[in-house]
Design brief:
Rossmann fold; Helicase, Ruva Protein, domain 3; 3 domains; 5-stranded parallel sheet
Length: 340
């Protein structure tokens, strides 16, 4: 009996000893640590580089864009650049971070005392902003600047925005604000006018596909170029979405990413069938076009089908009297009314 208990007690230890290290999601594993690794945002990087080089550093930045284009990453990189200090000491705010500085690792891992990250979705009230303003008056502990990063800032309440205005307009010399939002139209104009705004754009399909190719090589996996293009299109310009899909695809194919497998994973139809459908429409054969044979046995979802048809329409008929955007709206409405 005692022996059985000892074996049970030792079992978790053996399991822990033989356990493989926890898998890190690709989106976290390959998060950029320098501005050189920030893809698709050349205009933002160039503006920041010139501003830092000439000492024209704003007291507040507003980063806006769709999900997964690098808003939070850019905010952390700006905080790192503001507080960059080489291991040899000295230094000044710069985007040319040739080596890991004294504060860099802690800032990138969100554990630096002088770089405070706040999620406005869960800290929406005036009391949260009051605490922030009170702490802003104190000098930084070890860094050059005390940086406040507020994510999803549009979710702050009206009183919270009002309480922030005065400090935002005339902050202490040692304080910088960096805001990130997906819905900039919900941010009051009085706040926007006090910030330097950067609109982070969606990543182009070719550039995103190239980025995925590099990650595949680092992961030691294999991937078809066509499969990576499918993932890049499905991500709709979001790097995080692309890496999440790639993570699933690698697991699905046991280290090999193939186009056919990605189509099944994402619920996409064979593009040849879509071309056949569009050819039928262009020839005026309405009866044949309405028959479901073109997409039979396909795992394509209605929304994915609408997006695929309009994407091809835009490429094949740039001079069409029906704009691709209107086509997308009509097909999406039609698809949403159909059973999934």
């Amino acid at each position: 009996m005692a022996k059985a208990k000892d074996q049970q007690a030792d079992a978790p230890k053996h399991a822990a000893a033989g356990a493989s290290p926890a898998h890190a999601a690709l989106a976290r594993k390959y998060r950029p640590t320098t501005f050189a690794g920030l893809i698709g945002q050349e205009a933002t990087v160039r503006t920041l580089r010139n501003a830092f080089a000439t000492g024209r550093i704003a007291q507040a930045y507003m980063l806006t864009g769709v999900r997964g284009v690098g808003k939070t990453t850019t905010a952390r990189l700006i905080a790192r650049a503001l507080n960059y200090e080489p291991s040899s000491g000295g230094g000044a705010p710069t985007l040319e971070m040739t080596e890991e500085g004294v504060h860099c690792r802690a800032i990138l891992e969100s554990r630096h005392l002088d770089v405070v990250e706040m999620d406005a979705a869960s800290h929406t009230g005036i009391e949260n902003i009051r605490d922030l303003i009170d702490s802003a008056h104190y000098k930084p502990n070890t860094a050059r600047y005390k940086v406040y990063i507020i994510d999803e800032v549009h979710m702050l309440s009206k009183p919270a925005f009002a309480g922030l205005l005065k400090t935002l307009e005339e902050p202490p010399e040692h304080v910088k604000f960096i805001f990130a939002t997906t819905e900039v139209r919900k941010v009051p104009v009085t706040v926007l006018s006090r910030c330097q705004r950067f609109d982070l754009k969606r990543i182009e399909v070719d550039e995103l596909s190239g980025h995925l190719t590099g990650i595949i090589a680092k992961e030691g996996a294999e991937a078809d170029a066509a499969a990576l293009m499918l993932i890049a299109r499905a991500a709709e310009g979001s790097v995080r979405d692309a890496l999440s899909i790639l993570d699933r695809a690698i697991a699905f194919g046991s280290g090999k990413v193939e186009a056919q497998a990605v189509r099944g994973l994402l619920g996409l139809a064979d593009r040849v069938r879509i071309f056949d459908l569009l050819e039928t429409i262009f020839t005026g054969n309405a009866g044949k076009a309405l028959r479901p044979a073109h997409l039979q046995n396909s795992a394509e979802t209605p929304r994915a089908g609408a997006r695929n048809r309009c994407s091809i329409w835009a490429r094949t008929s740039p001079g069409s009297p029906v704009p691709a955007a209107r086509c997308m709206k009509l097909l999406t409405l039609r698809s949403s009314s159909d059973p999934a």
